[in-house]
Amino acid sequence: MRPVTLHTIIRHTGQNRAVVCRPERLSADTARACIRRGRRGRANVRVFETTDRTGTAVHIVHIHFGPGRWRDIDAVTDIYEVPTAALTAV
Q1: Which of 17, 56, 67, 84 has minimal CB crowding within 10 Å?
Q2: How far is Cα 57 from Cα 53, in angstroms, rounded to an integer?
Q3: Cβ count within 10 A of residue 85
Q4: Angstrom distance (rounded) from CA 77 to CA 58
Q5: Separation between Cα atoms, residue 85 and residue 27, nearest integer Å
Q6: Residue 85 has what pLDDT?
Q7: Is the model more confident about 57 or about 71?
Q8: Does residue 81 come out as left (phi exceeding 0), alpha (psi in the -120 to 50 range) or beta?
Q9: Nearest 10 degrees: Cα torsion 60, 66, 69, 73
């Protein structure tokens, strides 16, 4: 089964550009815990159901952490690509 992929985008205070981190591979359990933490932390969490380029069903989870959470950072966005099979296998 394909692991969950995490993409992180960070916007620092006073800068017009965003820092895009290298995609990370996570287990479904770790991703689920991170998503729960975002919901508990009052982040903006949205979930979309779609398919990837090969037609495999995936859930895209978009978590936006606004200003005030970290010093010198305006926003952090985490985007998780979760294979639907990973959600239903647990």
Answers
A1: 17
A2: 10
A3: 13
A4: 19
A5: 13
A6: 87
A7: 57
A8: beta
A9: 100
Q: Could you tell me the residue ranges of all domains in the chain?
A: 4-88
Structure tokens at 44: 């903006």
- For residue 79, CA distances in Å to 11, 14, 20, 50 come to 14, 23, 11, 14
Distance CA 55, CA 60 (A): 14
Q: In this model, does residue 84 exceed pLDDT 60? A: yes
DSSP character for 36?
H
CA 1 to chain centre: 19
13/75 Cα distance (integer angstroms): 8
Tell me how crowded residue 32 is: count the other CB atoms within 10 A of its CB.
18
How much is the pTM?
A: 0.84
C-alpha distances in Å from residue 74, one per residue of 15, 51, 77: 9, 31, 10
- Separation CA 63–CA 7 (nearest Å): 11
